[in-house]
Amino acid sequence: MNYKKLIRSQELRFRIIRALSWVPDKIMLSLQYRIKLGRKCNFKNAKRWTEKLQLYKMYYRNPILGVCVDKYEVRSYVADKGLEKNLVKLYGVWDKAEDIDFEILPNSFVLKTTDGGGGENVVLVKDKLSINKDKLNKLFHSWQSVKEPNAGREWAYTQIKKSRIIAEELLINKDNPEAGIEDFKILCFSGKPEYIIVDKDRYIDHRRNFYTTDWKRVRVTTDHEQFEDQYPEPQNLKEMLHIANILSKDFPFVRVDLYNLEGRIYFGELTFYPWTGYVQFTPDSFDFELGDLMDCSSFLPK
Question: Which terminus of the chain is more solvent-facing, meaning fewer CB atoms within 10 Å of its CB: N or C?
């Protein structure tokens, strides 16, 4: 069930969520899980990955998470791991849109808020001479002034200190510029990469395939259809997996998102609660396979 289709007004959804903020996490997550996936969430004996992600949200309280989900602060985390060369070029960071110094920016770039998740709060600028600064200011003001309530009880995002705006290099898919760059999302458990999700054609016909770390295709469908053609194994696959290993060692689970353009690997982001834990895999058995890989013993209450 998609509650956004039932309640189309964002303002009304936010008001309802804020009104329910007093509800304990366990009750709220149990209710959301039932609404989203149509089944009970087994907290006492979690076997599914989607169930364990709810426990992750409730109990895992590593203070570094706030740094890792902030699109500016995470750069220091990546650099401290010896991977500064894999960071997308940064042009600047500002508290508000009115402060952006367009004089120092190249003709094309990306603007994004540091607290936007799920690919939201992003503006792709292909020609800065075409920018309407008044509209841009209003857009970022709307994103930064309206604090979206923590609907999915994703604790990490509550630890971001403040919303800022960063400008980064605009990465281009030269073979198909309108489609957007391909995204390699690596599911890592306690520092070990296990599966790779390839997201393709994000802006025109978003599809995704799953692969094992030795590049065998896994027939799994989520909220986007698979693409039927076999995606070629990246020549630098081992390097991508090595980067994912380094960035995921500190956590029981994290999805490491990377871009791979013309043989160069770029860091995208770290995601601790993919799909907010509300994803229906087909086949359903894949939920249990991922669940077997996630060890919750280090953060569950004794």
Answer: C
